[in-house]
Specification:
Length: about 400
């Protein structure tokens, strides 16, 4: 397949506002400032409205990080406040009874304290996975900014919006509710040629988190240990570096997905090959990778790689290939779920990864593949000029489930 990179889907792009400009009217006392329009946040939240005048952050801010908040998320918010000119950030795990000065609260709405805060602040309780609510404005004798995620992912997404809001000494009084339109959103490093460096991957992961994506697939075609030499273990230093990148992804609420491409040489019915596949999975699991992907694109499916497959699956061809691939994928899915029941479902790229036409291969895949395994699809062509809703519906029908769109970018 060609060089493929995608943002599968970002958040819904609707802002409920009629304003076109954004600015603060300077005042001599600097207690409040008039906000003429909504601030700009990307991706655009599902709902956002102003609730009053903007207010100063001040030189000192109290940061309330409820017990469920990770150290990484708390530290990230402290850095954002410091960058905005706040010199002293005092952290505490408890919400003060009375708000004085500027108080920023981080938490999850399922938590008792988080629910109470939202109720008292007359905000919305978000119930969507990865959703969040930001509310800000005057409270008691001070100003309160609350960032409440439905879950840990949602809270982290709230901090990414907070980073875009906290660009000056004043903060807008507003209410934001946001949640993703698609469950998997991210990019694929899946091109031929020199792979990215580890530094480039790290920078890319930080970009993905900033736009509230949640998935990165590692599948460079020219990583020999993922394709041509997939049976061989990674050198220790390379494996360690992959683990380091996976940790950065996890900290930034990105699912690091490791993809292996054994198709050119694998014997689908061979126990030894399956054991080697498990060894590769276990090696990656040992450094923190929990999500996996089997790429079966750009391979020959008119002939077998071993005689044993002809005995097990019959004469070679597209239909038999789909049966053999399904057998391997189902075993791998069962193995991964057996060692890690909470692991994300296995993802696969079929050999017929494009168009939505009925074929013997797709029919056999639809019939034999475990329904929990995610199928990727590039649209009506390898690099389609466009992808319509009707195209997606046709793909859902032919593959027997909603597909994960891989928008192929050459």
């Amino acid at each position: 397949m060609m060089n493929k990179r995608i943002i599968y889907g970002l958040l819904g792009a609707v802002i409920l506002s009629g304003s076109l400009k954004f600015g603060y009217a300077q005042q001599k006392n600097f207690e409040t400032a008039t906000v003429s329009t909504l601030p700009s946040i990307f991706p655009s939240p599902v709902f956002m409205e102003l609730q009053g005048e903007s207010f100063p952050l001040g030189q000192a801010v109290t940061l309330v990080a409820l017990p469920e908040v990770s150290e990484y998320t708390k530290t990230a918010v402290v850095k954002m406040l410091n960058k905005a000119g706040v010199k002293n950030v005092n952290t505490t795990p408890k919400i003060p009874k009375s708000i004085r000065g500027t108080v920023v609260v981080l938490g999850e709405s399922k938590n008792g304290d988080g629910k109470s805060l939202i109720s008292n602040n007359q905000s919305i309780l978000d119930t969507h996975k990865e959703g969040y609510v930001i509310s800000s404005g005057k409270k008691d004798q001070g100003f309160l900014i609350s960032l409440m995620g439905h879950d840990a992912h949602g809270l982290f997404h709230a901090t990414q919006s907070f980073a875009q809001l906290i660009t000056s000494a004043f903060f807008p009084s507003l209410l934001i509710q946001d949640y993703p339109a698609q469950p998997i959103r991210g990019s694929v490093e899946g091109f031929y040629g020199k792979p990215w460096t580890m530094l480039e991957r790290e920078q890319h992961l930080l970009f993905l988190s900033s736009v509230k994506a949640n998935t990165y697939v590692y599948t460079p075609k020219d990583d020999p240990y993922a394709r041509d030499r997939w049976r061989e273990p990674y050198p220790a230093d390379t494996l360690s570096e992959l683990g380091r990148i996976a940790k950065i992804a996890t900290d930034n609420h990105i699912n690091f997905v490791y993809a292996i491409s054994p198709g050119p040489t694998i014997c689908f019915s061979c126990k030894t090959d399956f054991d080697l596949l498990k060894d590769k999975v276990n090696a990656l699991r040992s450094v923190g990778v929990r999500s996996f992907y089997l790429a079966l694109d750009d391979i020959e499916y008119q002939k077998w790689n071993c005689n044993q497959d002809s005995i097990t699956f019959g004469k070679s061809g597209p239909e038999a290939a789909a049966v053999a691939q399904s057998s391997l994928l189902n075993k791998l899915q069962n193995y991964i779920k057996g060692v890690d029941p909470e692991a994300p479902n296995l993802i696969m790229v079929p050999t017929e990864y494009y168009d939505a036409k009925e074929t013997p291969y797709k029919a056999a895949l639809r019939k034999n593949l475990n329904q929990d395994i995610v199928v990727q699809w590039t649209g009506t062509d390898v690099v389609p000029p466009s992808i319509s809703i009707n195209d997606a519906k046709a793909a859902t029908k032919v593959f027997g489930k909603p597909t994960l769109l891989w928008d192929n970018y050459p």
